[in-house]
Specification:
9 helices; mainly alpha; globular
């Protein structure tokens, strides 16, 4: 979607874009104030061209290869990987692959929320609890 020639015009209508994205990618209700803030963020000048530029310069597959070959081996302190279990855009194996999990530093953890792509807005209280428990 973000790599299509229509992406800049689609992103130019921030309100419609955000409403559509949240409708298609969430599993739980999101507060109106979070939607309004997201619309505001997507309304900044240049966003409609910057987002497609980013997605045309990388891919989830390319990022995952970089993580596995360069980033994860350099991590020395525990990390917490968070993701929505029902996110249609982020393959679950990014967070559950036993070979990758074995590379994480001792004390690391993975948490899959019962949510979609926008888990920070879908399950904010659970997110806070998971973060607090990890940081203890």
């Amino acid at each position: 979607m973000f790599t299509s020639p229509d992406a800049p015009s689609m992103l130019a209508d921030a309100g419609r874009f955000v409403a559509t994205a949240y409708l298609l990618l969430t599993e739980r209700r999101v507060k109106a104030s979070d939607l309004a803030r997201t619309v505001q963020e997507f309304s900044y000048e240049g966003i409609s061209t910057a987002v497609p530029r980013y997605f045309n310069s990388s891919s989830f597959r390319q990022e995952w290869i970089e993580r596995r070959t360069r980033l994860i081996p350099r991590w020395k302190c525990p990390v917490l990987l968070l993701q929505g279990a029902d996110d249609p855009l982020q393959p679950r194996e990014f967070y559950t692959d036993p070979d990758v999990l074995a590379q994480l530093p001792q004390g690391s953890s993975v948490h899959l929320f019962d949510s979609g792509h926008f888990w920070p807005f879908e399950v904010p209280e659970e997110m806070i609890t998971v973060l607090r428990d990890f940081l203890k």
